[in-house]
Amino acid sequence: MPSEPFAERVVPMAGMMVLVLAVQLLSLALMPSLSETEVRVFEDPESAANPFSYIILVLGFTVFLLMAMRLKKGWIVTWVVLLAMAMGVYYVISAFAPPLPSLLLSLGVLALLHLHPEWYVIDLFGFLVSAGVGTLFGLSMTPIPAMILLLVLAAYDAISVYKTRHMVTLAEGVMEMRAPLLFVIPRRRSYSFRREGLGSGEDRGAYFLGLGDAIIPTVLVISANWSLDMPAFEVLGVGANLAALGAILGTALGFLLLSITSRDKPQAGLPFLNGGAILGFLLAVLVAGTSAF
Question: Residue 132, exposed/middle/buried by CB under 10 A (0-12, 13-18, 19+)?
C-alpha cells in the first residue's frame, strides 16, 4: 500500500488541532461576559452529581439519534440538531452583541448551513457551538465534577468506539443526514462535502472529529479558569490562569498522541484529549501550589 502523502496526513491533523485549541481560546474570551449572566446548567457547581446528569443527557440524545436513524426519520434529527445548535450560536454571539443583532446573525448562520452545507460552513457552525457549550458547562462545574465528567466520558467514548461501535454508526449516520455534529477537515483542496459526503475507506476525502472532542476538554479549561485563584497569563489576547493553561497544553499533547495512532479505523478521541487535559491541569495545580480539591 502506498504511503499517504504528507500534505494529506499532516496538514489536516494540524488544522484539526488548531480548531480544538481555537475552541478553547474562544471559550476563554466568552467567559467574562457569560459569567455575568445567570445562565447555568447546574444550580450547585460543586455537586458530584453534575457530571452524571450530563451523561444521562448524552445517553438520552444518543438513543434519540439511533432510533431516528433506525426509523428513517433523519429529517427530524436534522432539524432538532440545527435548532439546538442555532441556540448555541446565539449564546456565543450574544456575548458580544445586543439581542436582536445576535438573533439575526444566528438565523443567518442557520440559513447558510441549511442552504450551503459545505465543510467550511459546518466547521464554522461547530466552532461557535462548541465554544458556547464548553463555556456554559465549564461555568456550571468546579474542577472536581469537571474531571469526573472527563474521566467517565473518556471511558464511554472508548467503549462506544472500540467495543459496541455504536458511536461509529452514529457518526456516520448524522453526517449522512447532514446534521452538523462533526468537524470536517479536508485531506485535499478539491474536497467538497456536498458532493462527496463521507466517502469510504481510503477514498474518504476528509477526516472527521466529533464536536464533543472539542467541547469536553474545554469544560475543564473554563472550570479551572473561573473557580481557581492562581497566577494568570494572556494567551493571544485572552486571559487564562495557570491551571486553564495547563489543561490547554495537555489537550494539545493528547491530540498529538491521537494524531499518531492508526488512521485505518475510527479512533476514540476523548481518552487522549481528556487524559491530556486532566494531566496538564493537575501538573499546573501542582506547580502553582494551589489546592483544587
Answer: buried
Q: Give me the helices (H) in the chain, please.
A: 6-35, 50-70, 74-93, 99-115, 119-138, 143-158, 166-176, 193-196, 211-227, 242-259, 270-288
Rounded Cα distance between 169 and 66, Å, is 8
Count CB atoms within 10 A of the CB of residue 144: 18
Q: Which residues contact 145 (CB under 8 A, 6 or more apart)?
A: 45, 46, 47, 48, 50, 51, 223
- The larger pLDDT score, comparing residue 19 to residue 81, is at 19
**Per-residue cell: 276:** 491530556
Q: Give residue for cell 448562520.
A: 109
Cα–Cα distance for residue pair 291/69, rounded to 1 Å? 46
User: Going by C-beta distance under 8 Å and a sequence separation of 6 or more, which residues neighbour residue 136?
Assistant: 34, 39, 40, 41, 91
- Check pLDDT > 90 for residue 278: yes
- Per residue in 110-150, pLDDT (tens digit) is 888 888 888 998 898 889 889 988 999 999 999 999 999 99
Neighbours of 169 (CB within 10 A): 14
Is residue 219 predicted with pLDDT exceeding 90? Answer: yes
CA distance 69 to 76: 10
Q: pTM of this prediction?
A: 0.87
User: Who's near 110: CB < 8 A, 6+ residues apart?
Assistant: 82, 83, 86, 89
